[in-house]
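Fold this: Glycosyltransferase involved in cell wall biosynthesis
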Amino acid sequence: MNVDLLPLVTVIIPAYNAAKTLADTLRSVSNQTHEHLEILVVDDGSQDGTYELANDYRLQDSRIRVLRQENGGVARARNYAIREAAGSYIAPIDADDLWHPRKIELQLRALASLPDGRGVAYNWYVAIDGNDVIFAHSKPVLYKGDVFEIMVRENFIGNGSTPLMPRTDVVACGGYDPSLRDQKAEGCEDHKLYLALAERLPFAPVPDFLTGYRFTRGNMSSNACRMLRSHALVMAEIKKRYPHLAAAATTAEFDTARWYFRKALSSKDHDQVKKLAPMMAGRFPLRLAIHGAGLVWRSVKGRARRLAKRVIGKPPATQTQETMTAIALPENGTSFHDRFEAAAVGRTGVLIKPRGGDA
């Protein structure tokens, strides 16, 4: 097939001091089976050789173009790339994340299934550590069509490296909001854009774990208090514009805070725990009390079920259990690369290798 007949997708990669991970990210983009790509790397005022590394990688893939700006944050870097983009679709990826080789191909196929072929495609993700090893994964949801109210309740996409979005609609929505950074609340620019897109477009899921989303101590998503400030500002706009969704937005704020608190506890990040505990007690006292009572009730029910199981035998599987057993979930402790070693590769003809392997 003539590559030029396929839709042009512009991949945008904001990069700040990303010299340690950018080559792996670029390799995962270069190896996409959908080859008609424009790859824009925006060096956001790096001081560690990111710009030089990106320019060197251009020798391996002529589709790459390197842009440069003074440090202005991820939203401004992404918006710079969007202004320069020639593609019909925008596919963002952060400079430390990874893609499955078929990610763009499968997302375009999902969009083709929509009535007029116009919408936002997303997939599921796995959380990876500094060695590309999987240690968690997103909830495998299949929300489609009008997802605006669902997106208010939860950012089910979960990161900025997953969606495939029509460029004209991204521009019409104003792109990513840099004012959150200016208010010292950087972090939820992607969620805010997804909400704006969900007001005007249907969403289409790709039911597979195609994004490797890296969690490392010190990255933006690990700064819980800043992320929660960012989320609160985004939800405040929703409450103002859609008063009937105010309760759902407040629930989303509580659930988000609770998620970060559990994450801080599990990773033994005592500094974050000390900051989050009084904040949650001050903002959500009633919800914390109700949630605590619910935990006690579920614990009592769980003990009762286990006792009944011992007495009468194994109970029938629930619908949720049956659904989950039909999905091949990622295995913790395995490499993200193991998920696609047998997949077809893109134009480079080289499979992505784990860090430290031969390129």
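Residues 237-307 form one domain. The first strand starts at residue 9 and ends at 15.
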